[in-house]
Amino acid sequence: MSLMLPALDGRLELKSLLGEGGMGQVHRAWDSALERAVAVKFLRGTDPKEAERLLLEARLQARVEHPNVVHVHEVGTLEGRPCIVMQLVEGRTLAGPTREAPLAVRVELLREAALGLHAAHLQGLVHRDVKPGNVLVETTESGGHHALVSDFGLARDEEGGFTQSGLPAGTLDFMAPEVLLDGGPVDFRVDIYALGATAYALLSGHLPFRKTTQPQATEGGSQRPTQHLDDTQLLRRILEEEPTPLLGVPPDLRTIVAKAMEKAPADRYASAEAFADDLGRFLRGEPVLARRAPLGERLVRWSRHNRTAARALAVAAMAVVAGIGAAAWISRRSNLEALAAARLGAEASTMRESLRAEYLAPAHDLRPAREALRKALRSLEQRPGVQGSGAGAFAIGTGRELLDDHDGARASFEEAWRLGFRTPEAAAALGEALARQYELEVKKVGESLDQA
After folding, report:
1. Residues labelled as active-site residues
2. What pTM was computed for the model?
């Protein structure tokens, strides 16, 4: 193995096996140098490529400093095997007994997990394997519970990552439809979908598309479904059908989960933070921003999905049954541009939804919220790479529009369009800005005629 890793023998003492996690076994250990208990993850086997993935996992996860993300301390070798030294989380996962906790506790854990994912997304990371077994639940000193996202072993960052042949890496029950459709690069919204599916499992007691399944926690916190479904049947359900309706759950919470699990990425929450915010509103008894689509729109979406399902199912079934095919990832540059555009678009939507929430709240002073928005806009304008970017111009235009700078907003939307950022949202924003300008010009002409 060509990897040069520091030897941790003599400093780390293994205590007990905690279970399987991601790419290898996880042990409890004692760090004698820093006098603290830690978790040590070993690889399965000695494949150098797997060791490189171990380093990738550590590098990605160490970049995220957030109370709801398991912290990576260092990478090294122990007993001649490469390992990751991580924060030790005493507790279970969302796949364990947490399913029996009060509703408010489960929703709060989901909210915290969403905040942890948002912190990772801001670093350019996509987890790609969010599921109940990868959300750890720690019991606090006060007897409460605290969620931490773990196992970024399948994450991809802006610098590449790795590809898989056949079906994309991850857990099929929590995999977003666009991952299976192989229509190009995926972004952080696959994690929003997966956390929505995790919420569904946590709230209902069964997996979204296994209609009679009670998930069973296995050693290590993973889930083993009891209902037999081959991968082809499950793929068809994920691509074509809606999950079995959640029963015994308040309507607003059902709507939140449904929005997170929309088939089309653009119909989901604009960011994991927006998902967390709506869960917070539910817990506080406030109106949530998610709204169930009208019946006509749901029928249109269903028809749209079924037109492409045959092609998608054929591709996916070929990968499952014959074990052939490969994910057709686009070039590194296209990946970077797609991810940057998605992140900037999410920031624009988050600005809009945050201000909307302020207006929906009981009467209060809006000046602090508008000042916070003004600071966020200035920060965005000064961020490297935003100027000269179509997605950046659109995000800036959105902020200016929310601050009633209509001329500045129109100029930004026109620039975004000129630079090739021509999404339906950009078209609508530019159209509204031009219509507003037209109305003002008509009003000016009318006033001048009145004066004459």
Report:
1. 129
2. 0.63
